[in-house]
């Protein structure tokens, strides 16, 4: 009343104080029958109480002194008695909704006033256009997105087990890799293959852990998204896009915090350019796996099925990532799995820079760049290290940025699937 705003609210069984704060009341009997619609009247709702007491169907039930009118009206309609009096007026029988509705509509002045209000509101004013809305949502897409981003940001800060858990696991794991492969010697064939293995394992482990950790969080938030989507509070696109954007800075933090210690422990190329490129690829692969995990979480009905579906992808990513089965050795009918694997593009992009020809005159045998003795089946051959890696794993140092572009496209594609699934797929059965 102080601000001049109408307030409409359902009140299943309010207290006396709250009930008497309302001006008007719409009372329905079970089944949707209209019992009363009009003003409550002076305290204690004398207009409404007088009407209910005057009905023949209520059989003279009176409001006890000091009783909550809201509790009394429910007693009248349901045939119960919560007054704690000795009258024992409870019958256990619901009042007939049809009779109650007929009595209200034929009553004077309550029924006549209600019909007059309905007729007035339903009759259009000449020359006045019908009320219409450009969108079912009360706010613009930008406002909805900004609101969900703020809420998701607070949720991430409060969910310490989620973020600290995946960061802690990766730090321990990568320190273990760093100790095992400490100051790796790449002057022989075994050392070169070990360096490729370190790059492969660290890249895929970050992605797998990010994917597995995000799925329970996304499934938990999914019920909130369904509720707010059905009530037109937020749409599925804004909700999914906000979750996708809010994960991005955390993935960057994970990539920086976990990759840099391993990078120097293993003894990779100590240049800012190579380090930045390595972290960038690690972030893109991690975000690609995380995006796929979000998509699977929106498609599957339970977290168990989501984890089972995502787990089926992990062996394929390991097998066709280009390490255990280099591209030239993959059967022709399985090569499609290599090109759909983000880990394969990580191998193509970050392996070759670790053997870049720097501070030397050229490739072996005309130059003094690093070379190794490679076993060729029945003989040994001295070859340039970078040329050996490019030939064995079918990668190209000059095409490393094209592989980064493919990783970016893979992230966008997975997030597009995630947003579409969040907007159009509903796994609620009720």
Mean pLDDT: 85
Radius of gyration from the alpha-carbon trace, in angstroms:
35 Å
Number of helices: 16
Q: Please outline the major beta sheet.
A: 2 strands, antiparallel
Q: What is the rounded distance between the termini?
A: 39 Å
Q: In which range does the helix fraction lie?
A: 55-70%
SSE order: HEEHHHHHHHHHHHHHEEHH
Q: Give the class from helix and strand content and strand pairing.
A: mainly alpha
Strand order of the largest sheet: 1-2
Report strand %. Answer: 5-15%
**Coarse morphology:** elongated
Poorly predicted segments: none
Number of strands: 4
Tell me the layout of helices and strands.
Layout: H1 16-19, E1 24-29, E2 33-39, H2 46-54, H3 69-78, H4 97-105, H5 110-122, H6 141-158, H7 160-180, H8 189-230, H9 236-266, H10 272-299, H11 303-311, H12 313-319, H13 335-339, H14 342-350, E3 371-375, E4 380-384, H15 385-393, H16 400-424
Antiparallel strand pairs: 1-2, 3-4
Helix pairs in contact: 6-9, 7-8, 7-9, 8-9, 8-10, 8-11, 8-14, 9-10, 9-16, 10-11, 10-14, 10-16, 14-16
């Amino acid at each position: 009343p102080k601000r001049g705003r109408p307030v409409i609210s359902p009140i299943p069984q309010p207290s006396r104080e709250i009930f008497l704060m309302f001006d008007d009341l719409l009372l329905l009997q079970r089944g949707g029958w209209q019992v009363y619609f009009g003003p409550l009247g002076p305290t204690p709702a004398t207009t409404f109480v007088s009407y209910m007491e005057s009905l023949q169907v209520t059989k003279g039930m009176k409001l006890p002194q000091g009783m909550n009118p809201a509790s009394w009206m429910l007693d009248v309609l349901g045939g119960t008695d919560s007054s704690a009096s000795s009258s024992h007026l409870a019958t256990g029988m619901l009042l007939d909704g049809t009779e109650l509705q007929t009595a209200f509509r034929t009553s004077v002045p309550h029924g006549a006033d209600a019909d007059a209000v309905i007729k007035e509101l339903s009759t259009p004013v000449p020359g006045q256009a019908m009320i219409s809305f450009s969108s079912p949502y009360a706010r613009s897409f930008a406002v909805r997105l900004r609101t969900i981003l703020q809420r998701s940001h607070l949720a991430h800060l409060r969910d310490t087990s989620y973020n600290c858990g995946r960061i802690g696991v990766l730090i321990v794991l990568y320190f273990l890799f760093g100790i095992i492969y400490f100051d790796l010697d790449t002057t022989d064939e075994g050392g070169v293959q070990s360096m490729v293995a370190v790059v492969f394992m660290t890249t895929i482990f970050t992605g797998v852990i990010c994917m597995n950790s995000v799925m329970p969080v996304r499934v938990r938030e999914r019920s909130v998204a369904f509720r707010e989507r059905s009530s037109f509070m937020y749409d599925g696109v804004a909700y999914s896009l906000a979750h996708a954007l809010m994960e991005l800075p955390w993935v960057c933090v994970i990539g920086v915090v976990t990759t840099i210690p391993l990078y120097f422990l293993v003894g990779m190329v100590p240049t800012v350019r190579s380090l930045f490129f390595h972290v960038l690829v690690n972030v893109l692969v991690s975000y690609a796996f995380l995006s796929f995990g979000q998509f699977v979480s929106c498609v599957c009905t339970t977290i168990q099925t989501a984890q089972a579906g995502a787990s089926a992808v992990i062996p394929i990513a390991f097998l066709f990532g280009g390490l255990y089965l280099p591209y030239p050795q993959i059967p022709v009918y399985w090569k499609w799995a290599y090109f759909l694997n983000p880990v394969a593009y990580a191998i193509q992009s970050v392996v070759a820079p670790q053997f870049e020809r720097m501070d030397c005159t050229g490739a072996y045998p005309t130059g003094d760049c690093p070379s190794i003795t490679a076993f060729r089946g029945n003989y040994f051959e001295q070859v340039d290290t970078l040329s050996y890696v490019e030939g064995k794993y079918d990668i190209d140092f000059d095409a490393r940025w094209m592989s980064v572009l493919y990783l970016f496209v893979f992230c966008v594609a997975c997030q597009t699937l995630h947003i579409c699934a969040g907007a159009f797929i509903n796994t609620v059965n009720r």
